[in-house]
Request: fold
Amino acid sequence: MDTDTKTQLEHLLGTTIRHVTPLSGGQIAAVYAVTFDSSSFSTPSSTLSTSHTAVSQAAVSQAVVKVDLEGDLACEGRMLHYLHDKSHLPVPQVYAQDGGLLVLEHLPGNGRLNADAERHMAELLAGLHNVTADAYGFAEDTLIGSLTLPNGWHADWGRFFAAKRLLHFANLAHKRGRLPEKTLTRVQKLAERVPEWLEPNPPGLVHGDIWSGNVLAQDGIITGVIDPAIYYADPEVDLAYIDLFGTFGQAFWRRYQEIRPLADAFWQYRRALYSLFPLLVHVYYFGSGYVAGVEQKLAVLEQRFS
Reply:
């Protein structure tokens, strides 16, 4: 953290920084654990819709501070605020947001996801998915990493998913030179047919970026879920992401299905379809190593719906 950023942060919080430790971050921000001289800091209160936001008299001596690289930290703050208000997901409280700084609650966690933690995560995620809306999407565009998630409200999930998840991110990956033309064409052909045969679940609130790096655990309890990419979707998009990257084991799946049983269609084709979205995002970010995964999911779907 450079001197100018430290000065901006101290001015924002009205206290002196004692220690800064770099943490692993993502595409949109450099991330730091920051310890302050005093046991509390005080900042002007306002709402998350403004460029300068904070809570007053936060009785803490440590926080996580994100410094903008190329993303929209104000949007991340609004997403966390929304999750805090609408669900029981243990997301960090937003202490302050000002320009390129986002100051968050420092949550404990050693990262060890044992069976108890997996069951707890299943309960939390099922609860999140039970938060419903009258349509799919969201009132504003949100983010996955530094990429915009185009939203708006839509009654037809198949058309929404085809246009704003499959085609949108396939085109981005292709324009970046990372998705071959022939693979893009296959995605386009699939997207044309998705609204015909996709039978989705009703809209539920999703985290949107559930992988092990975004889940904090300690002593068999989920202590934090970070870096959301929220919108209202078929909740199985979260489950397809979890399945794709093996985020949780059987304890999670058994407990989740005790609360929200999964239809056969998830295992037969919807998990392959919904997995295409995060795979296309990964092609955009990380390159051709994920193209084979896209093509494998396309082959499954082409065979079933040819």
Summary: The longest strand covers residues 29-36. The two ends are 54 Å apart (CA to CA). Confidence is low (pLDDT under 50) at residues 44-58. DSSP finds nine helices and 14 strands in the chain.
